Amino acid sequence: VPMVAPGNVQVHVINSTLAKVHWDPVPLKTVRGHLQGYKVYYWKVQSLSRRNRRHVEKKILTFRGNKTFGMLPGLEPYSSYKLNVRVVNGKGEGPASPDKVFKTPEGVPSSPSFLKIINPTLDSLTLEWGSPTHPNGVLTSYILKFQPINNTHELGPLVEIRIPANESSLILKNLNYSTRYKFYFNAQTSVGSGSQITEEAITIMDE
């Protein structure tokens, strides 16, 4: 098997899901056989928004021939990763380079995990929601938009409310009675808005 590890491993983080890794080629005489390529082992150490450490699954990308760089796609935003590089010949892999740590920046969150509308009255509705399964960063706020729908399915004026990120329910007051409302709801990080979920509900006709 090869004798030495690739040197001078550098990681350039391009965005929240993509990084580029560079390395110096090993001297050909240390390959001790036919140079097949280089393998990059990389794994997530932890999410920076959740401190849970679960079973670490190492991923491997193989770059054929005498390439000295490669792209690592499909990374998770706002996470800490480690990687190392090894050279490969027909017999197997050489030793790993020292582990290199890198961090991905924040991304936009996934949609809130649920939105429920309960306790309708003549002029109010109560909203409850769950935080996104993948916050992909630090949540800064939720954005609620809603509008009435009339009997001919035309949409009325859109109202927008910004809600602090630590809230999980809201009572909407001063609504019209016996009216159907459509709700659009999403979460935000400093990077931007995540995908929204929609829901409809009706205030009651009379007490």
UniProtKB/TrEMBL annotation:
PROSITE patterns assigned to the protein according to its UniProt record, in alphabetical order: FN3
Alphabetical UniProt keywords: Disulfide bond, Immunoglobulin domain, Repeat
**A GO CC term attached to the entry:** neuron projection
Against SUPFAM superfamilies, the record matches this protein to:
Fibronectin type III (SSF49265)
Q: Which domain of life is it from?
A: Eukaryota
Mind telling me which residue stretches traverse the membrane in this protein? none
InterPro entries hit by this protein? FN3_dom, FN3_sf, Ig-like_fold, Neural/epithelial_adhesion
**Where does the Fibronectin type-III domain start and stop, copy by copy?**
5-107, 111-207
Name this protein carries in UniProt: NRCAM protein
The gene name reads Nrcam_1
